[in-house]
Specification:
Layout lengths: L5 H19 L5 H11 L11 H15 L14 E3 L12 E3 L10 H5 L5 E3 L4 E3 L9 H5 L5 E3 L3 H5 L5 E3 L5 E3 L19 E3 L3 H9 L4 E5 L13 H10 L4 E4 L1 H21 L3 E2 L4 H10 L1 H6 L7 H12 L4 E6 L3 H6 L10 E4 H10 L16 H4 L6 H12 L9 E5 L1 H13 L6 E5 L15 H12 L7 H5 L18
Parallel strand pairs: 9-10, 9-12, 11-15, 12-13, 14-15
Antiparallel strand pairs: 1-8, 2-5, 3-4, 6-7
Helix pairs in contact: 1-2, 1-3, 1-7, 1-14, 2-3, 9-12, 9-16
């Protein structure tokens, strides 16, 4: 799998692994952190940056992120996504630059088209003054030789909500009022300058304290590590490092689909359009950019992650729930105080692997037919999977779904278009399934392999699952003992 930060991603995960080792040994103190800095960057020559001093400072900041803290001690940001400023200094500040294709033509179309006087004649080509340029793009459109290039920085290009700008020094700035915590910017940065807060050490502390720490593995985990690594394989590895138990969140998919289907049925009768409630980044987009639709059109059912967390806290009062998945936005959902009894911590797949390595545990093939979710719940991870499961539940109840129309959105732009149509009263479909990642959760920012590889392995694993029905499956669980609504209220 190729990402813009592929050259340094293993080093980023190595830092998480070593900090986790310190946590297991009870060595989360400044002296040990500084020793780790010099252990990872011994010098005298730099490996990734211009000098070892910058490399060491960035390791210090990544250690802070691995402790769930902001990288800068002056920062009071509560955002999950954070910028490591020392790493963000290699991108060009200018958005439009003149290339060698410039012929210094007599017509001077670029100069004549610029309304800000930002372009002048240089020695071999024209020159754009970045202090005057307003990035309107008229010069690039006017040039007959296509000599003016638009250098859109990769983090900004990846952001679906326009949350990324730059300060006067060209350093990335995240507008937290626009950021939906999707994490798409993280692996788009070729310099590893954007990352997220990490809660591996918190999980280790909970295990070391003797608490019942229970893992909740996202449906997309099947296929992430190849066709030989099943849910049973992952459960065995987690138990080895001290987890009390593991539950597949596909079961939460069954729970969410069952309750959301009741909302859809009611909305159909009322002629009211609705959106799904599973993707945390999609919900963040609605809350921040489409607040009226968030209040009036979003399903009030909790996400599968929250459903399983509430189920476990009902079964094991005082337990600690840890969600493991491909999603950075789930970290923000876990911290949302308006959703009680949600996951206590969220780990991405990369963080999960680093945690396993910190205890020298590997994922191994296990011959076990462990299954808690229906195939419908398991397929929540792919685009269309949520809507298909909801419709399946309606059909299991005998509801006629032949006239239902769906808009399946996968990716920020598709979600934005659908919500804009809903806001304008021009959405032709009955329901929106919103997922901020192309392909759904299997294409999440922290996926372990390329999406095509994951899907191939997933199909082999899902082919071994039985054909249990969603509603029949839920007969085995105490659904009347916990709330399936975001605000936590119980039905009377």
């Amino acid at each position: 799998m190729i990402t813009n930060d592929e050259g340094i991603v293993s080093f980023k995960h190595k830092i998480i692994e070593e900090v986790a080792r310190l946590a297991w040994n009870g060595q989360l103190e400044e002296d040990y952190f500084e020793k780790l800095v010099y252990q990872l960057i011994p010098g005298p020559k730099a490996t990734y940056r211009c000098c070892i001093y910058k490399e060491r400072e960035l390791v210090r900041q990544r250690i802070k992120l691995s402790l769930g803290k902001n990288p800068s001690p002056e920062s009071t940001s509560e955002n999950v996504i954070q910028v490591l400023e020392p790493a963000c200094d290699e991108c060009p500040i200018a958005a439009y630059v003149v290339t060698d294709n410039c012929r210094l033509c007599m017509g001077k179309a670029c100069i004549n088209s610029c309304p800000f006087g930002a372009i002048s004649v240089g020695h071999n080509r024209t020159y754009i003054d970045p202090a005057k340029c307003k990035e309107c793009g008229k010069c690039a459109a006017a040039c007959p030789y296509n000599a003016i290039a638009h250098l859109e920085r990769p983090c900004k290009k990846a952001c679906p909500t326009g949350a990324i700008t730059y300060n006067e020094y060209g350093v990335c700035v995240i507008d937290e009022n626009k950021c939906v915590q999707c994490g798409h910017c993280i692996h788009s940065c070729p310099f590893g300058a954007i990352s997220s807060k990490i809660y591996v050490t918190d999980v280790v502390k909970e295990i070391m304290a003797g608490k019942k720490v229970i893992a909740m593995c996202a449906p997309s985990i099947e296929g992430q590590f190849g066709a030989d690594i099943s849910m049973a394989s992952i459960k065995k590895a987690l138990m080895k490092i001290g987890f009390f138990d593991m539950v597949e969140v596909g079961l939460g998919g069954d729970m969410t689909a069952a309750y959301e289907s009741e909302e859809w049925e009611e909305a159909l009768k009322e002629g009211r359009k609705m959106t799904t409630s599973c993707c945390a980044a999609f919900i963040n987009m609605m809350r921040k950019q489409f607040p009226e639709q968030f209040e009036n059109n979003m399903s009030s059912t909790v996400s599968p992650m929250c459903a399983i967390s509430r189920y476990l806290k009902t079964m094991y009062p005082g337990c600690v729930t840890v969600f493991i998945g491909p999603c950075v936005a789930k970290k923000s959902e876990a911290q949302d105080e308006s959703i009680p009894d949600n996951a206590d911590y969220v780990l991405t797949y990369g963080e999960f692997r680093a945690l396993l390595r910190s205890k020298d545990v590997n994922l191994e093939k296990v011959d076990d037919n462990y299954q808690e979710a229906s195939v419908w719940g398991k397929r929540f991870a792919t685009s269309g999977g949520v809507a298909n499961a909801v419709i399946e539940c309606m059909q299991e109840r005998g509801v006629d779904t032949s006239d239902i129309t769906l808009r399946k959105c996968a990716g920020g732009q598709e979600c934005k278009v659908a919500l804009s149509l809903l806001k304008a009263g021009r959405l032709p479909e009955d329901f929106i399934e919103g997922m901020m990642c192309p392909g759904g959760c299997v294409g999440g920012p922290s996926k372990h392999k390329a999406e095509t590889e994951i899907i191939k392995a997933r199909e082999m694993l899902l082919g071994n699952a039985d054909d249990r029905k969603v509603l029949d499956n839920l007969e085995n669980y105490p659904m009347d003992k916990f709330s399936m609504y975001r605000d936590g209220h119980m039905e009377e």
